[in-house]
Design brief:
The chain contains 35 helices and 22 strands. It is an alpha+beta fold. It has a five-stranded antiparallel sheet. A four-stranded mixed sheet has the order 5-9-11-10. β20 and β21 form a beta hairpin. α2 packs parallel to α23, α11 packs across α13 and α13 packs across α35. The longest helix has 31 residues. It is globular. The two termini are 41 Å apart.
Length: 843
């Protein structure tokens, strides 16, 4: 008896498991996983099985020149227990909330780096990219499951969504690809909220997850979700206008609550983006000028590019993505990312043609036509790009919000065709002609054979797609229609896999292994011969064959020994630079763990950027986002001013008028600045910032910066010679005898030091002026000023003093309080909802 009773739970469990495995959705997801696995194995074959790393140094050079260096710095700090929210290894110093610290996929990468080492974590970037593709597919399938689409329709469109153009183009910038996962999940819970389905209460949690991921993308996701909410509520029948407004406002409240729950991370990130960086500054135009900008059409080149990018992201590569000529509006990344299969273009155009006879209410049809007009206007005019970019300059990065909508309509059209719906033959012909024009233009422009092959595959699959759709216009037999749809699905797979894989071909990539040292000379000679070849394809392919010594240079033992030598010798806070390039143009210090001044940062501290623009524009390299010192090493005055005390070099004979040879470690030589290079300075006299801006030239800057500190309310001068006249002989002598000393911090967010002041004056610390820093002098809080446009400074009374500089990420404390309160509100509101539900059920 007992044995029988005990066996019943096992039988029920087996039955449930059997039922779960037989579920159409489970089978579809398993097939989707296998199909994506096979597709990714082919698309990323050079990265999975070959010698390439998914780290690019061509159009996507940010990945090599910036991102992996940032990730390496984070991992190094985590491994040695010195991680803080400020990092002096990145340029003059940076707030760590510049980065997407809470991107779950980057957290996986950091974890791999902590366990295996920063060099080994680079091997897993391609695996993480494939993981994103898988998760994007499942997230979109889940979103589509909120509607009455067939399982096959959901599976096909989810497959396409996982390989959409935005993810495969912008996803190479690592953190950008994650938004393609978060956005459909946000739409999913928004839809649950609209339909009042189980799980709708988690809508704010999804907003919270997005909020701690990225302020920039959260803004875009919330804006798009808000529009989605408006149109979906308008489509609902049986509601009064008051009920629609109430439903919309409640949805907005849920989103605001989610943002509030994320404030502990959201606010510090927003502080960096909005208050430190000049990236999102507007041009200050009036309202009328702004509206004129919003609705002034783009150039003809933009529309031509937009049409081509609907059919492929790879039609405008002069000679691949190497150093060949490019023919974009902006570049490969910044142009509209609109590709999500050739079939999607055909079916989205068809949707507008068949919508008027669709089985839905007139209200729903009108709302969908209105949404189509809005989408078209947003893409065709700058208003869309400006609205999704904080109403500043228009960009096309927001185009990820279009992908779920385009494929939602594609899913609807697939079921429409499966049910025998009629298509518009004229529109099929029209799209085919447009497609032919795009592929012909692309074929005439591209140089590498791999890109030509892709265009040929896209052309063939595009023609087959048009033929299948034409057949469906005339055939009524269900069985033949299903066979045609099945063939169309195969064509679709070939179409997106060919296009997706081409995004990763002929890229200037980092290799998994360096060229052996003994072969570098031979390989370099071969590379130089290719660069000077008369054959254009050979010439531009040279960059792909450039010999690499990245790992050998980045992790060379003698450099680490040099840094350890200096650490033991000098306990002060100093900066180190090199007179050569090793791993990157600007970011070696982040990867190698020393404090320099070179950096590459597209959201650079606006105060530092202004200082460089006015006083030392030669620090800029190529653009205003790269700062380099190796090409300015002869300026040892600048080095001393910024605190660069030591230079690492392969040269044993420095210019003795500027540097002295300190020691040799391995094959590297350490040169010491003959000037007093300090990371803090003392001044007895001030001048105004306006005076510095007006008078600073290459001839006057050393006197201006060396003799006085520039303050916002400083003394106005008309000529540089006035500075010395402002100081008495006693002041000059006192200033020369005064000093400010900072000590090497154990954690970069806490800096200690001392001041010896022979007279009242000012101390300036060569740390970027940024909210979050606080100063204690002799244990008393002291106001921080902005010195020389870009640096921390303060008033100092005569005498000897102790200094404590502390960085706390601005917005972190207030954000933490706000998050706690919002989580309490969220928990309370959910409990109240459950209580009302149970009370209603019991009644």
């Amino acid at each position: 008896m007992n044995e029988k009773n005990n066996s019943r739970p096992k039988i029920r469990t087996a039955q449930k498991l059997s039922g779960f495995c037989q579920s159409p959705d489970v089978r579809a997801l398993c097939f989707l996983f296998l199909l994506l696995s096979a597709s990714c194995s082919f698309m990323f074959r050079d990265y999975l099985y070959g010698n390439d790393l998914m780290i690019f140094n061509d159009i996507g050079s940010d990945t090599w020149q910036q991102y992996i260096m940032n990730y390496t710095s984070i991992v190094n700090h985590l491994r040695d227990g010195s991680f803080s929210l400020w990092d002096f290894n990145n340029g003059l110093g940076i707030n760590q909330f510049n980065f997407n610290l809470f991107d779950p996929f980057l957290m996986l990468l950091y974890g791999a780096g902590v366990i295996l080492g920063p060099a080994h974590m680079l091997l897993y970037i391609n695996v993480i990219q494939i993981l994103k593709i898988m998760v994007a597919a499942f997230a979109f399938y889940w979103f589509l499951s909120q509607f009455s689409f067939s399982v096959l329709s959901r599976m096909i469109t989810s497959y396409v969504y996982a390989l959409n153009g935005f993810l495969l183009v912008w996803g190479q910038h690592y953190q950008f690809g994650t938004v393609v996962i978060y956005f459909p999940l946000m739409l999913l819970f928004c839809e649950k909220f609209i339909q009042k389905k189980k799980g709708k209460a988690l809508f704010p949690v999804m907003v919270f997850l997005c909020g701690i991921y990225s302020v920039y993308f959260t803004y875009m996701c919330l804006a798009a979700t808000g529009l989605y909410l408006v149109f979906r509520i308008l489509m609902l029948d049986g509601l009064s206008w008051k009920e629609r407004v109430q439903r919309f406002l409640l949805g907005c409240a849920e989103m605001i609550l989610g943002v509030g729950m994320s404030l502990v991370v959201f606010l510090p990130m927003a502080e960096v983006l909005l208050n430190v960086s000049s990236r999102l500054d507007s041009d200050g135009t009036g309202l009328l000028d702004f509206l004129r900008q919003c609705f002034t059409p783009y150039s003809r080149k933009f529309y031509l590019s937009m049409l081509k990018r609907m059919f492929s992201s790879n039609l405008q590569n002069g000679y691949g993505l190497a150093k060949g000529p490019q023919q974009y509006v902006m570049n490969y990344y910044e142009d509209p990312a609109l590709f999500c299969s050739t079939l999607a273009v055909f079916l989205n155009v068809q949707f507008l043609a068949v919508l008027h006879r669709a089985e839905m209410t007139k209200r729903a049809r009108r709302v969908l036509y209105g949404a189509a007009v809005l989408i078209f206007a947003g893409v065709a005019l700058p208003i869309g790009g400006m609205a999704f970019n904080y109403f500043t300059l228009p960009t096309q990065r927001y185009t990820f919000v279009l992908m779920p909508i385009l494929l939602l309509l594609m899913a609807w059209m697939w079921d429409y065709m499966r049910k025998g719906g009629r298509l518009n033959l004229v529109l099929i012909l029209g799209v085919t002609v447009l497609m032919g024009w795009a592929y012909r233009c692309g074929y005439e422009q591209v140089g590498f054979q791999e890109y030509k092959t892709n265009i040929l595959i896209l052309t063939v699959t595009g023609i087959l797609t048009a033929l299948c759709l034409t057949v469906l216009c005339f055939l009524k037999d269900t069985q033949i229609r299903n066979v045609t749809l099945g063939f169309l699905g195969v064509v679709l797979v070939v179409n997106v896999v060919s296009e997706g894989g081409t995004n990763y071909q002929n890229r200037v990539t980092m290799k998994k292994a360096d060229v052996p040292a003994e072969m570098m000379e031979q390989e370099t000679k071969r590379y130089e011969e290719m660069k000077t070849s008369e054959d254009k394809e050979t010439k531009y392919r040279a960059e792909l064959e450039k010999p690499q010594d990245f790992f050998r240079e980045m992790y060379r033992v003698d450099l680490k020994d040099c840094l350890n030598y200096l650490k033991e010798k000098d306990p002060t806070f100093y900066r180190v630079e090199k007179d050569y390039i090793s791993g990157t143009v600007s970011m070696d210090s982040s990867g190698q763990g020393y404090r320099g001044i070179s950096t590459y940062n597209s959201v650079m501290n606006g105060n530092i950027k202004e200082f460089v623009e006015i006083c030392y524009p030669e620090l800029f390299f190529a653009d205003h986002n790269h700062y380099t010192f190796w090409n300015n090493v002869e300026d040892n005055w600048l080095a001393a001013f910024l605190g660069v005390k030591y230079i690492l070099s392969g040269n044993s004979e420095p210019d003795e008028t500027k540097y002295r040879l300190l020691d040799q470690v391995g094959s590297l030589y350490i040169h010491e600045n003959i000037r007093d290079a300090e990371t803090a300075h003392f001044y007895s006299q001030d001048i105004s910032e306006e005076s510095l801006k007006e008078l600073c030239t290459e001839e006057t800057r050393e006197e201006l910066l060396g003799e006085a500190i520039a303050l916002e309310d400083g003394t106005k001068i008309q000529d540089v010679s006035e500075i010395r006249k402002l100081k008495s002989e006693e002041q000059k002598a006192a200033e020369e005898s005064s000093s400010v000393m900072l000590y090497a911090p154990q954690k970069d967010s806490v800096v200690t030091g001392s001041i010896h002041a022979e007279t009242d004056g000012y101390a300036m610390f060569m740390i970027p002026y940024e909210k979050g820093w606080s100063l204690m002098i002799d244990g008393e809080e002291t106001e921080l000023l902005r010195g020389d446009i870009g640096f921390l400074a303060c008033k100092v009374p005569e005498g000897d003093h102790t200094v404590l500089l502390t960085f706390r990420a601005p917005g972190l404390r207030g954000g933490a309080v706000g998050s706690i309160l919002c989580w309490i509100l969220f928990a309370g509101s959910r409990i109240l909802i459950l209580y009302k539900k149970e009370k209603s059920a019991s009644a």
